[in-house]
Design goal:
By secondary structure, this protein is of the alpha/beta class. The chain has 10 helices and 11 strands. It has 2 domains: 153 residues, Isopropylmalate Dehydrogenase (3-Layer(aba) Sandwich), CATH 3.40.718; 138 residues, 3-Layer(aba) Sandwich (Isopropylmalate Dehydrogenase), CATH 3.40.718.
Length: 306
């Protein structure tokens, strides 16, 4: 049986949006999937019968200091969920709550995979051919050391293999041009580092080719990745404001993806946008079910760079 943990108090519109998203997701979950819902006692009164209610006495709000909140609120919905994941009571934990607290709790309770110095967050971008590109990092690691780009490549390949079922994913570096000399001094160094030590590296890629990349994994620092993510969200919003309708444009709707896996930690954790509505929460829950059954740990162990 697959057991998914859900933080019902995570997000700007919690608990109402989380409950509504759960109701939407339940009919689409597999018969052997069980949802453990972490919430305050009043939140748990109207759960679907098949859910497991985990009553907590407190929750972490979005404006709290992450470390202080974790220290002062050991019975919070977020920390209880991460603790149960560490104890293998559940297979995956998902939250739209405090990203800093979720990151700190995950690192402290679960630890990092060998050879990984910092976790990273990914986002999936659609391609015109119907496939997807794994982009990382998209926000956590704003300042990145050269060697961490190798870690991003390793994490991205493992995700593409275990979740997207790509046997030999290729890696590209997001840059201002395709030539090796493009980019700032760090990106020029990273290009050479990837060329020397990452067998799957195929070179630089430009943002204008995002939706038709040859590579399955696109790596960059978290500052650049977050800008790319937000610009794509803006493009989707603009298309809706202009009344444009196309199947591909709908694939840019972030609510269809729901949450981003935090890669590098020894456990499966998903983080959703704090402003997520019911549709995004539904996608988060379905994504957690898929991620929970993926053999990511085995792939990350097997995909160490040369």
């Amino acid at each position: 049986m697959t057991k998914i943990g859900l933080d019902i108090r995570g997000g700007d519109h919690a608990p109402e949006a989380i409950l509504a998203g759960l109701q939407l997701a339940m009919p689409e979950l597999k018969a052997n999937t069980e949802v453990w819902v972490y919430g305050l006692s009043d939140d748990l009164k109207s759960l679907p019968e098949s859910c497991v209610a985990v009553s907590c006495s407190e929750h972490i709000s979005m404006d709290e200091h992450p470390v202080r909140a974790l220290q002062q609120k050991p019975d919070s919905t977020l920390l209880r969920g991460i603790s149960d994941l560490a104890k293998t009571k559940i297979d995956c934990f998902a939250s739209a709550g405090h990203s800093g607290a979720l990151m700190v709790a995950s690192m402290q309770a679960l630890g990092l995979h060998e050879g990984i110095s910092r976790p990273a967050v990914i986002s999936l971008f659609p391609k015109m051919n119907g496939e997807q590109t794994v982009v990382l990092d998209v926000g956590i690691n704003v300042d990145v050391k050269d060697e961490q780009f190798l870690e991003f490549a390793r994490l991205g390949k493992a995700y593409a293999q275990s979740v997207l079922n790509k046997e030999n994913p290729k890696v590209a570096l997001l840059n201002t041009g395709t030539e090796a000399s493009k980019g700032n001094l760090q990106y020029q160094r990273v290009y050479q580092l990837l060329k020397d030590r990452e067998p799957a590296f195929i070179g630089n890629a430009e943002a204008r080719d995002l939706f038709k990349l040859e590579a399955e994994v696109l790596i960059c620092d978290g500052f650049t990745g977050n800008m790319l993510l937000k610009q794509t969200e803006s493009f989707f919003s603009l298309s809706q404001d202009l009344g444009l309708n196309h199947e591909f444009l709908e694939r840019l709707n972030y609510e269809k993806y729901g949450a981003s896996p935090i890669l590098g930690i020894k456990g499966k954790v998903l983080l959703a946008h704090g402003a997520s509505g019911p549709e995004a929460i539904k996608s988060m829950i379905l994504g957690a079910e898929s991620f929970a059954s993926a053999n990511f740990a085995e792939q990350i162990s097997a995909s160490s760079t040369i």
